[in-house]
TrEMBL record:
Molecular-function annotations in GO: GTP binding
InterPro entries: G_AIG1, P-loop_NTPase
Annotated AIG1-type G domain residues: 15-122
Signal peptide: none
Similarity field: Belongs to the TRAFAC class TrmE-Era-EngA-EngB-Septin-like GTPase superfamily. AIG1/Toc34/Toc159-like paraseptin GTPase family. IAN subfamily.
Alphabetically ordered keywords of this record: Coiled coil, Membrane, Nucleotide-binding, Transmembrane, Transmembrane helix
Cited Pfam families: AIG1
Annotated transmembrane regions: 312-332
Organism whose genome encodes this protein: Rotaria magnacalcarata
Protein name from the UniProt record: AIG1-type G domain-containing protein
């Protein structure tokens, strides 16, 4: 038995949450996990300074969720410490999906977020479909073009780095008492992550951030903002285009999410009927256990019901679910309230 333990070891995938201090990394980690696993106190002394992780046990792969320190700090010693912790997370789980958290202020991405992302992108490159942008703490009452304006500014600030609206998730400011909205938002976020694919995240260059250059870099970003906003006609045209593209992308995401919810409910019914000894073929329009076999790319969730969840979602929604997708759909299925 022990002789086979090494060869039969389950593959592991990482979900690595990046962003500056105070961006809400711990909050997002807890939302995904389904309970308060990481400290979310926003006081300075409570900010994460070492990499933390949480293991999700799923079959045939495990998911490790990483709460990583922010990058930008006032002193070089703190920046260097954070860089080491970030590198440590990627060394522990090189096959990962990455989330970068943006915390816009007054409808603009913060300069420190721009600086941090550019430094991390230069170091790791982040292969396509393995990187997610989450815009956190978006005001619930906002202009119709709020998100599109941020996307337009991000496009200009990050140029020539391409950004895709298909990889953008906007997270409204949530009332802690509104459990129904929180649960729905969590479900959509989990589904969004599951549509992305774990890739090998290789350190290809040093993460370069120098504390004595931060002031200059912040001023350069602010200057770019002013230049973009002075050219109102070009900016408004880009905002209009971004708004249309984002609405189309969001409609597609919502349809796929609703398809997933429906399929998971059907699978739950099938599992319950099978336990009672009934024929599941009559449930959900004849979707049987045979039609929801193992996930593609070797991915699956923790039980027959969980394995079917990922497959059914992929078949219904027209997406490919990788290893991390099966594991994270398990989170949705078995922690759903």
């Amino acid at each position: 038995m022990e002789a086979n333990s090494v060869s039969s070891k389950k593959p592991e995938y990482g979900l690595i949450i990046l962003g500056n201090s105070g961006s809400g990394k711990s909050y997002i980690c807890n939302m995904i996990i389904g309970y308060e696993r990481f400290e979310t106190d926003r006081r300075r002394e409570a900010v994460t300074t070492t990499v933390e992780s949480h293991r999700i046990d799923a079959e045939p792969s495990d998911l490790l969720i990483y709460n990583v320190p922010g990058l930008i700090e006032s002193h070089q010693e703190e920046i260097d410490r954070n860089k080491r912790e970030i590198v440590k997370a990627f060394e522990q789980s090189p096959i990962s999906v990455v989330i970068f958290l943006w915390t816009p202020v007054d409808g603009r991405p913060q300069p420190d977020d721009i600086i941090a992302f550019k430094a991390l992108k230069e170091a790791y490159k982040f292969p396509p479909k393995s990187l997610i942008f989450v815009l956190n703490n978006i005001p619930s009452k906002r202009p119709a073009t709020y998100e599109a304006r941020i996307f337009a500014l991000l496009t200009k600030m990050l140029n020539p780095i391409p950004i895709s609206l298909e990889d953008m998730f906007c997270l409204d400011t949530l009332n802690s008492e509104d459990n129904e909205k929180f649960s729905a938002t969590r479900g959509r976020l989990i589904h969004f992550i599951a549509e992305h694919h774990e890739k090998e995240q290789k350190l290809q260059a040093d993460i370069i951030v120098r504390s004595n250059e931060l002031r200059m870099l912040r001023e350069a970003v602010k200057k770019q903002y002013l230049e973009a906003e002075e050219n109102k006609q070009a900016l408004e045209l880009q905002i209009k285009q971004m708004k249309n593209e984002y609405e189309a992308a969001r409609k597609g995401q919502e349809k796929r999410y609703q398809d997933m919810v429906f399929k998971l409910d059907v699978i739950k019914q099938q599992a319950e009927e099978e336990e009672k000894g009934h024929d599941p073929a009559i449930i959900g329009g004849g979707i049987s256990a045979a039609s929801v076999g193992a996930l593609g790319a070797g991915a699956a969730a923790g039980t027959a019901m969980g394995a079917g969840a990922g497959t059914a979602m992929g078949a219904a929604a027209g997406v490919t679910i990788g290893g991390i997708g099966g594991a994270i759909i398990t989170l949705y299925r078995f922690r759903r309230k």
